[in-house]
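Q: Could you fold this chain for me?
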Amino acid sequence: MDSVSARHCGRMSILTPGGSRVTLDGPASLPIVIPHLLGFHPVSSLVVIGLDADRSRVRVTCRVDIPDPVPQRGAWTALIRALRQSSAASAIVAVYPASAESLNELPHFEVVDSLVTGLNGAGFRVRDALAISGRKYRSYWCPDDGCCPDAGAEPSSEYALSLSASLVFTGSAPHGSREAIADALKPRTADDSIVRDIVDRRGGIEMRLPAGSLEKVTALVDALSEPEPLSLSTLVRLTVFAAHVCVDVHVRDMFLFALTRSPDRATLARAREILSEVVRCFEGVERAAGAACLAVCAWVCGDGASARIAADIALDADPTCRLAALVAIAIDRGQPPSLWTELLDHLSLEQLAAVGQPREEF
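A: Sure. Below is the predicted structure, expressed as structure tokens.
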């Protein structure tokens, strides 16, 4: 592997989930920004950041578990495909070792060598390869102890605070870990008050729902647009309503169109809250349908980590759920959330409402 310190990654920029562009200054920014790019703080992970050719803008960020044993050079097909589909021209590689591992002995050197060789062979210029632990970082290529000491360099507290604040201000808030995202969607217990209320009130709620598909969709989206805090009664009603809508493919497609065609972030946030309760309180195809819709909403919000986990939950509950499979494949291939709105560009809510029978999924 090359040991050329001049290849240290320089300035680059990212587009936050809120639509703001943030400029980053060299490798010191990466320990701070990578959790925001992924949506969670990684551990025992291999991260690849794809950059475009013109302005060093981040095009895609991919994470995989650190492989064991060291893979062959031709085993990086999925990462290479994601970089190509995102139109990346160069890449930065980052290794997040297990919590107990130190940067003194650069961890997983052979894995990094295999990946860098694979990326270079596929035509991507790897601008740097770093080991990161907390806020400390060390380049695999930099021989200068003043630049990259054995224990790792660290950004100044002022810079770290300023960059973190700018990212949080734009609406980015990474989860503590990937596991924390999954834990937030674990099923509620049978004696949970929300589950009990859903069991007691479900029939009555469904009887009072609007009769027509368009009326259902309009009523649900309007309810999700309300800014007031949710009472327990409203939470239960909307959870039952959303489960009822999502399980019908025809109505679900109309619902997702109305919710995501010109997305309002506050409405999407409320929708994700309610759909998370569908995932936690229902089973079988209803859980799968709610998780698939949650995956779409999270993806549209730029939260690829939550979207991928929700898609996995949907496919685990119902392996035939093609909507969840579509989201999972798109994320794994590095497709941007704009792909979803592009799929909807040729449709209108009226066209979807005019479809009389359940149809094939997107």
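A (continued): The mean pLDDT is 86.
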